[in-house]
Amino acid sequence: MATPPQPVRFALGTFSAAGGSPFPGLVVDDRVADLGQALQWRPASTLDVLERWTEVLPSLRRLASEAREWLPLDGLRVHAPVAPRQVFQSGANYRQHVIDLVVAHRPADSAESEEQARARAAELMDRRAREDQPYVFIGLPSAITGPHDDVVLPSWCEQPDWELELTAVIGTPAHRVSPEEALRHVAGYTIANDLTARDLVFRKDMREIGTDWLRSKNAPGFTPLGPYLVPVEFVPDPSDLRLTLKLNGDTMQDESTKDMIFDVARMVSCVSQTTTLLPGDLVLTGSPAGNGMHHGRLLRDGDVMESTITGLGAQRTRCVAEERA
């Protein structure tokens, strides 16, 4: 009996030629098909494609398998793959990262040894995984930029930091879905670098208010996204991917999604208990150990960040300091 042919691997993105408007594209190897021309109903954006994800997926598979006289990828600008309506971000979701934070922030006069602190933190993380919910907050779509665009460091930000994150992109609406059902609502995955102004996370005027995610997370361009949306069928196990971020060529983050406390399914399910996830929405799943605060080295003018996640492509962004008024 003949073995059925393997599906051709493809991804989705948003592209533009010199002087042209952005268009949704299907990527195979180093070629791009303009979906606004290739699909009969002429979608204007990747979000349009995701709005009809279940219906259009067979057409995308057929298109990917056809002989191609498409646009060369190296002649196009790569934008963020999707413009979402909602962005959900997560913190404290990598076991080793949180354990390191607990150890680093124990009181200077503590009688607890580092080994004891690590054991206590590990027990806490095990309990969180069994009994608790992910820590999720809301981001702004206006913070998203392309995977190769410059990142402007605002003049008011004194401690800009990087946070490489696996990101789930929603394909069908999800409301109050269980973890067992959650991944059926995910269209694919992409890369996000969820930058943070560390000096602004906690309010200085009234600490009782707690965290200020508006200012610390949502400056324009603080979320480089992409390069592509890779469909779930080409990401067999989102809990076994390698995240690597290099700063000026030096590896700063290098961890597996196996270290997540809450996996993608639990994260999507958790968000859906409160709100309705819509096609194109982003669920960022937290960042592993190795942020700038850990290394004592935060972002500066001229820094170059290179980010990869297994099978999802690569980002390369340069930091540009905003001139002070």
UniProtKB/TrEMBL annotation:
Pfam families registered for this protein in UniProt: FAA_hydrolase
Domain Fumarylacetoacetase-like C-terminal positions: 87-318
Keywords per UniProt: Metal-binding
Entry-linked Gene3D superfamilies: Fumarylacetoacetase-like, C-terminal domain
GO BP annotations listed: small molecule metabolic process
Presence of the UniProt keyword DNA-binding in the record: no
Highest rank taxon of the organism: Bacteria
GO MF terms held by the record: catalytic activity; metal ion binding
Family note: Belongs to the FAH family.
PANTHER family, per database record: FUMARYLACETOACETATE HYDROLASE DOMAIN-CONTAINING PROTEIN 2A, FUMARYLACETOACETATE HYDROLASE DOMAIN-CONTAINING PROTEIN 2A-RELATED
Protein name as annotated: 2-keto-4-pentenoate hydratase/2-oxohepta-3-ene-1,7-dioic acid hydratase (Catechol pathway)
Organism name: Lentzea flaviverrucosa
Taxonomic placement: Bacteria, Bacillati, Actinomycetota, Actinomycetes, Pseudonocardiales
